[in-house]
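INTERNAL AUDIT FORM
Audit reference: QA-55
Scope: verify that the stored structure record matches its stored sequence.
Auditor: D.O.
Record contents follow.
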Amino acid sequence: MTFVTALALLIGFLAIGPYVAHRFRRVQTNRIEFAPVRMLQNTRTDRRKRSKLEHRALLSVRMLVVIALALLGASPFVRCTRLSVDRAQGASIAMVIVIDDSLSMRARHGTETRFLRAKEASRQVLDSLREGDMIAVIAAGKPARLVLSLVTNVDLVRKTIKELPAADRATDLEGALSMAQAVLAQAPQTDKRVTLLSDLADGHPNEPLPSLTSASLWVPLNELAHAADDCAILSATSSATSVSIDVACNRAALRGLRDVVLLDRDGKERAKAPLVVDGTRATIQLPLASDASRDLRARLTGSDANSYDDELAVATQVNDVAVGLLMDRTTETVETGGAPILEQAISALHMPLKVRSLSTLDDQGAELRQLSAIAVDDAAGFTPEQRRAFEQFFARGGSALLALGSRSAQAQLGYTFEPMLLRVPRWLPSSAKGANTSAGVGAVGEAVSSWDDLHAKHRSVLAHEDVADHTLYATWVDGAPLVTQRAMGRGSSWVVTLPFSAQVSDLPLTTGFLALLYDWLQDVRSRLTGSRTEAGATWTFTKASDVRINGPAGPVEVRREGDVFRADPSLVGSYEVKVDEQTDTRIVGPPADEVDLSPRKRPPLPTTPSGGSNASIELSPYVALSLLVLLLLEMILRQARRRDEELHPVSHES
């Protein structure tokens, strides 16, 4: 508050003036001499009774008038800040409102959460739009989703944003902004804008936001982009005698100040240990009594900025993820020595996996029966016995990642890639420089820019019937498949049209390669009974007639696409999954990147008014209107007092 504002508000102290005036206003009725009264003894009158306040309603109104005058004097210096959209010209605009519905947005912001503040800001932006403007809504929780396509119905946009639920997903800012540009490309307006309502916390604080080429970007909520203390339980797994709890913290100040407790279904504490974090992660081992219930929860004591990641159900039936790597180690080993690139890349993901290297597959399928997933690099096809083993492998929920190279196109007679591919691929020269950077889904959607120049002189080309049966995960710049995905039984097959060799292309040396492996392994884990997945990861169920899921907030929506069921659990907690007659429990944990609440680097402010700006609304008109109403009420009360005095004459003395 400035000195001028304070000086203007001091006028409000003059409101005591009407009170003093009414206080000193003493009334006394007209005296009529009555002779017998003189015979009585004179008594002293009580002045306090004669000086009591009268017409209190009129007094209150007069005091409010003085206060309103003080506010009116100070209102030019006091403004109520709201968000609005500036316009360089009077033409309509096309805007995409990107709302971050990730876990970090559930952190406290004053008395509410960051997510609720973002929804309120979106309502303020919508209030400043005009007829003819087109608006779309995108949710930036991973994966980014188009919640509402471009429409001119502002009321529909308000309802959509109001009904958008909070979630515990990771943040997908790159995917959301890329999707926003694609949506705006369909709009006829020349003025295209993206309003990003986010705290910019996605686990990459040192990276700037991506720039937009065809639209202006506005990030108005500065107050949300600040770091805060947070600790989260990422996973909790029980064995016969103990519970292993993985905890992450983002600040050293929180370490050693909190405890990890183990609670049973009745809320009774079964074990407790202090939280001691080395770096940013810690694994706490708590003893498990033999009589302890299997329905357990791990909880962090104390409090931090985000309470939604402080508790997690303990997984009691977690299947180990065994991944087999079938490759030629002589050609895949890096020149500097060490393990093959594929093996090093999977190790770099730090996922709870058991990795096994395979040189061949036996015809009886013994290796496949021990695996949850297998990555096959540039194989020369499979024998009929191996193909039957793969059919059984997919039927029980296994997943295969098939990389195609020059040897794949030289399959011997009787060797094919069925059931993954109907035809043997061709190995042909490639004129495509790299991948289509505007496409890509999942984690690759964020890192697909690393595939813009793969330096691949050759690539595998799939048969037309194989392309029709697969979902395109990433494509070359000419539209040819680069990565495809297909449901196989209860499992899935992934096909890459390049081998995992640095001598053929730069594919295994890119961040997109790590993102591809991450998405594939997440898909593998999502198919395992009792496994832990991150919030927002898609669960896929194939060859089922009915799928029902019940989570922390009630029933979860299950989408059916042909004979495939998909669900996207977005909240941390325990889920009961019923597939036909089989019921199991799955645990959804918080994404590790959401624990770091440090924001990304903000983009520079827009140089033109088309980006939007903060606007202020003056209070003067509202105060002036209130003052006029009070003055009118004061006149009415004053006239009523005069009529009352005419009916009951009084004399005044001060």
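Auditor finding: record pair retrieved intact. The chain has four domains: 3-78+622-653, 82-227+600-618, 231-318, 321-526.
Action required: none
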